[in-house]
Amino acid sequence: MTYVPILDLTSDDETLARALDEVCTEVGFFQIVGHGVDPAVEERLWSTLRAFFDLPDEDKLALRPEPGEPYGYIPVSAESLAKSLGVATPGDLKESINLGPMQPPAHELSDPDEASVYQPNRWPDALPELQQVCADYYAEMSVLSERLMRLFALALDLPRDFFDPMMSHAPSALRAINYPETDQPLAIGQQRAGAHTDYGLLTILRQDAVGGLQVVDKEQNWVDVPSVPGGYVINIGDLMARWTNDRWQSTLHRVVNPVGGAAAAARRQSVPFFFNANWDAVVSCLPSCLEPGESPKYEPVTAGPHLMGKFRRTVTA
């Protein structure tokens, strides 16, 4: 049996809620099938992103963000995810394009940092169809994320709509990642993606069959997370763990370099969707996650500034 379990979202909500509480407490990672995401939208995204990463470097580099900005193209080795945990490592062996909300919120953006997470996305002139393809997928992931959050509420003995006011205008992020072939010697400690936890509420990941994603188990061993056809990998982020007073786990994970045979030089593609709370949502310990006489482990934190601080610590150039 795989360490990361598979849940079928066509099951009834009560069964799912019980299973979610168990897996989020014990593992912090799970995979889902029966999720209802339109496969045509998935496939258009996958093939169009492949075409994006095959563009000439000058087309991609034209989309690089200004310093401190969250969205745009990040070239190979320009980011080190392990830095978010204070660990110095060489830059990760991946390139990515980071995208934010596809439309601004209804309220006025008076905070410059909040305004920055709603800034227009950068799109390549050479691949104009990428914008609509990503917008369609972003919408599918938003619906799925909201469904998962309502199941999370049930799992935590809360009303189904408990989180709704905190995710009404969530500045979630879509990231597409290309891990190029690795046929050159690596620097000491260099990985495709260094060990890290995710920062927000939950992450929905689509990955290919190349492999390399690993999570830490309770014995501190690295365990592979295999690809499930038609499935998504879901993991709990730091904010969700904080909300639950660490009842649920934001689990350390990484992407390692392939070893041996054809896999040693294999290209890998993945697309994580980082679902976040509203910028101004206050994340404090949920009452259902405190035992009698127990105190919260963490002070309340405002979601947006917390996430922005973590992001800025990961960028090396």
From TrEMBL:
Record bears the keyword Oxidoreductase: yes
The keyword Iron appears for this protein: yes
Any one GO molecular-function label of the UniProt entry: oxidoreductase activity
InterPro entries: DIOX_N, IPNS-like_FE2OG_OXY, IPNS-like_sf, Iron_ascorbate_oxido_reductase, Oxoglu/Fe-dep_dioxygenase_dom
PROSITE patterns with a match to the protein in the record: FE2OG_OXY
Chain ranges of the Fe2OG dioxygenase domain: 169-277
Pathway of action: Antibiotic biosynthesis
Keywords, ordered alphabetically: Antibiotic biosynthesis, Iron, Metal-binding, Oxidoreductase
One Pfam family hit: DIOX_N
Gene3D superfamilies: B-lactam Antibiotic, Isopenicillin N Synthase, Chain
Record GO biological process: antibiotic biosynthetic process
Domain of life: Bacteria
Protein family (similarity comment): Belongs to the iron/ascorbate-dependent oxidoreductase family.
Name of the protein in its database record: Isopenicillin N synthase family oxygenase
Source organism per UniProt: Nakamurella alba
